[in-house]
Amino acid sequence: MPTNEAEQAAMHRALALAETVRGRTSPNPAVGAVVIDADGRLAGEGATTAAGGPHAEIVALRGAGPAAHGGTVIVTLEPCAHTGRTGPCTEALIAAGVARVVYGADDPNPEAAGGAQRLHEAGVDVVGGLEVHAAASGALRPWLHAMRTGRPYVTWKFAATLDGRVAAADYTSQWISSAASRADAHRWRASVDAVLVGSGTVLADDPHLTVRENDVLAEQQPLRVVLDRRHRLPDDARVLDAAAETVVLDTAVPQFAMKALYDRGVRHVLLEGGPTLAGAFVEARCVDEVVAYLAPRLLGAGPTALGDAGIGTLADAVMLEVESVTRLGEDIKVVGRPRWTDQTAGD
Predict the structure, then answer these.
(1) Are 337 and 321 in contact (CB under 8 A)?
(2) What pLDDT, on a 0 to 100 scale, did the predictor assign at position 346?
(3) Which of 17, 33, 100, 121 is buried most, with the most CB atoms less than 10 Å from its CB?
(4) Cβ proximity of 221 and 248 under 8 Å
(5) Could you say which of 45, 57, 78, 289 is catalytic?
(6) Known catalytic residue at 283
(7) What share of the chain in percent tops pLDDT 70?
C-alpha cells in the first residue's frame, strides 16, 4: 500500500528528530522514528540515544506503549536485524504488534541489513524509500558514507577573506569572520564526532577545539584530534586540557588518520587545520563537504585557505556542487560538496 499524508508528515517529524542527535550517536546512525496508532494518531516518537542505549524505534515504541499494537512505525533508516550492544529493532517491532513499518534509507551495513525482509517474513507490511533523498542527505549522510567507504565523512571548515586569505601577511588571523559565523562554527563542532587539526595549527594558534555556547563549555564535546608526526605538540597546549578527550596521532597521512578514527567509532570529522593539512586532505580525496565563511575583507597577502593539493592545471581543479549560500552577519557562508570524477571518495 502506498504511503499517505499522515505517514509523509510523520517522516518529516522523524527526520527532524534525527537532526537533534547529530554527533551524539556514533558509531550508530542518527535516526528518528515516529509511531502512529491504528487510528492514525501520533502515539510515540524518539531518536537514537548514545552508543549502548536504545535505538530510535525502541524509544518511540516505549513512548507509544500499547498504542503501538496495530499501528505504523515511520523511521528514517531500515530497522536493524542484528544484535550488537542492543537487541534487533526488528524483533522489538514484531513483539509490539506493529502492523506496518515505513522507512527512508536502506541500511548498507552488512551486519545489520535485512531488517525489511525479517519484518516482511513476520507478516509486517513494509515500505522503504519514503523521503529517501532527504534521509540520505540529512543526519544520516555521514554514517551512510562511512558504512560505504570504511572511513569517516570529512567536512572541511575554514574562514577567509573574499580574496581567500586565512591570515594577514604577519599571520594575524583573529578575527577574520564575524561573531555570527563563529557561533555557527561552534554549532558545526557540536554536530560531529571529532575535530581535527595538525600540530602546526596548535603551535600557531593554540586552539581549544571545544564547543562553547555563549562562552560556556557545552556538556557534550567532540573528540579532539591532532596529527603530530614530528612530535611537536607542547605539553601545555590547550588542546591537551581536561575539557574534552584528545587523541594525538603520529602520522601526517590522511588515510591512516581516517582509518584510526573509524576504528574508534568516529563517523564524522570536522577538519579545521591550516592550508597545508587541507591541501593534503584534498589531494587524498578525503574531503566530502566544504563549509566556507567568507568575510567582506581584502588582504592581498598572507596564507591562503588551501595549500598545495597536487593540482597543476585548471582542468584538474576540484569542482564543488554548491548546496547553500547564506548570510551570517556581514559574512557569507557557502556549503559545497566536491564532485570527485570517479566518485570513490564521496557518498
Answers:
(1) yes
(2) 42
(3) 33
(4) no
(5) 57
(6) no
(7) 97
pLDDT in tens, 193-225: 999 999 999 998 899 999 998 888 998 999 999
How are beta strands 125-127 and 100-105 bridged, if at all? parallel
CATH of span 152-338: 3.40.430.10
pLDDT, residue 82, reads: 77
Architecture of domain 5-144 in CATH? 3-Layer(aba) Sandwich (3.40)
Is the peptide bond preceding residue 175 cis, with omega within 30 degrees of 0? Answer: yes
Give the integer Cα–Cα distance in Å for 36 and 74.
8
Q: List the alpha helices (DSSP H) in the chain.
A: 5-19, 56-64, 89-95, 115-121, 132-136, 141-149, 179-190, 199-205, 254-263, 275-283
Tell me the per-residue pLDDT of 90-107, one tens digit each, with 9 for 90 and over: 999 999 999 999 999 999
Amino acid at 281: F
Q: For the chain, give percent helix, strand, coil, nearest 5.
A: 30, 25, 45
Does 5-144 match 152-338 in CATH topology? no
**Domain range annotation of the chain:** 5-144, 152-338
Cα 79 from chain centre: 20
Looking at every residue in the chain, the average pLDDT score rounds to 93
- Decide: 39 and 62 in contact? Cβ < 8 Å: no
Nearest Cα to Cα of residue 143 among 24, 40, 33, 229: 24
Report CA 103 to chain centroid distance, whole Å: 20
Number of H helices, E strands in the chain: 10, 15
For 16, half-sphere exposure in the C-beta direction (CA atoms, 13 angstrom radius) is 8
Other Cβ atoms closer than 10 A to 261? 24
Q: CB–CB of 243/219 below 8 Å?
A: no
| Contacts for 5-11: CB closer than 8 Å, 24+ residues apart | 6/36, 6/40, 7/36, 7/72, 7/74, 7/102, 7/130, 8/130, 8/131, 10/34, 10/36, 10/42, 10/72, 10/74, 10/102, 11/74, 11/76, 11/102, 11/104, 11/130, 11/131, 11/135
DSSP state of 16: H
